[in-house]
Design goal:
The structure is a homodimer.
Chain A (H helix, E strand, L loop, with lengths): L4 E3 L6 E7 L7 H11 L4 E7 L5 H10 L3 E6 L13 E2 L1 H6 L4 E4 L5 E4 L2 H11 L8 E5 L3 H12 L4 E5 L3 H14 L4 E3 L10 E4 L23 E4 L8 H8 L4 E2 L2 H14 L3
Parallel strand pairs in A: 2-3, 2-4, 5-7, 8-9, 8-11, 9-10, 11-12, 12-13
Antiparallel strand pairs in A: 4-6, 6-7
Amino acid sequence: MSDVLIPSPTGNTRIFAVVGDPIKQVKAPQLLNKVFTEEGVDAVMIAVHARPEQLATVIRGLQAMENFSGMLITIPYKFATCEFADTLSLAVKVSGSTNALRRNEHGVWEADNFDGTGFVLGLQRKGYELPGKRVLMAGGGGAGSSIAAALLQAGIDRLYLQEPDTVKALELIARLDQHWPGRCEVAQPAHLRSVDLAVNATPLGLSDEDPLPIDLDNLSAGTRVADIIMQPVETRLLREAQAAGHPVHPGSYMLNEQLGCYKTFFGI
Amino acid sequence: MSDVLIPSPTGNTRIFAVVGDPIKQVKAPQLLNKVFTEEGVDAVMIAVHARPEQLATVIRGLQAMENFSGMLITIPYKFATCEFADTLSLAVKVSGSTNALRRNEHGVWEADNFDGTGFVLGLQRKGYELPGKRVLMAGGGGAGSSIAAALLQAGIDRLYLQEPDTVKALELIARLDQHWPGRCEVAQPAHLRSVDLAVNATPLGLSDEDPLPIDLDNLSAGTRVADIIMQPVETRLLREAQAAGHPVHPGSYMLNEQLGCYKTFFGI
């Protein structure tokens, strides 16, 4: 059980949820409930475990609750949940991936995705300048595609996408090309030497036994290595990158910035 | 906000809900969450506001959540929710009214109603003997019908039902008659003098301006007067009954016993 203490929900409490499968690993309820309590907001976030065959029933059920205000979406549903929104942000349109839904004051359900915004804000907070940079992105899933869009919007010059599912990779590049033409391509081994920043947006590293998602041996000295994995805080990728002299950027930076994005989005 | 402090829900927390319309007045989340916390149970109860046209979507949504364990049902849905259960307890079958639904270990949704059990336990806890008694019951709604069934099961001799909706009254008497034949009838003014116990199970008394639900002037000395209204703690009915020398029995006694019933039902 969490050591974060909050007031018990009552009949007046607005409900928020984080929806995923599995759900045990999520940290959003503890983080958001701490914010609600500190800021005196009468709201609570619960973690909801939805199996794939029940996803639509669960989400429609949450949306049908009069005192339900919004939800976060986590694995594996970031690509499946656009259909539950009435309007999509640019980040959602480009990435095809949603991580937050809210009911606005007119009863309209709005979808957004703050993975990318949070990641970019995390870099900027550390003084890292994105315009003109060359970036290797490992992983074109829900988080990776949202981060790719946010990096391009922040002005990077080139995005090299390393994604073993070729169809998925080409589809994402085509979507990104519509907004930022000619700046994305499938990563080739030769690209590694030229990048300023290498980002892991795959699940590799959740376990210490996973293979490394990025070939550190071929990066140039000074290339920054970023991970979006939150747990463990220091992945093997970051540990080995640091040992090889690279500056590193852990997943917690993105999460911290996302929290601010969620607060704004949910009107806390 | 509640002054009951509880651990923040996490990804491991089982979810319970109380469903109604309106919902602001419910006390179940504070009461149950206090119990969860005191007993170290990793669970949380939220209050869910469901409009009539959304009721089925909301309840099916809750039931579809993998980590959702059970719900309490409050006004106006006690009669509408049997259809969401796979099995019905005797109290539900007789009263037609549900106030609790749980998912058992086989994934089967079971409906029960503890209004009656709680009320009867509350009387018994005060040393009141029910066998052979004559009872006036004001109100044949969700709570009244469940209490009527529990009183008959506890051995009362006669139940006089005072319910202005004649069709509703006759239907309830017919259902009770199937289990306890010949012991229920529509209340007539002459019955009042003969009863040992008079119970208010109508909403009259929520406001101090409401008319009295029971004609106190025609009760015999010593007739016990019970109310199931929780808020205000002392209704005008109880105040005037006490002034007239009758023993009284407030709604909180039923609620306290129901809490124990819910704990058992939900496996806490």
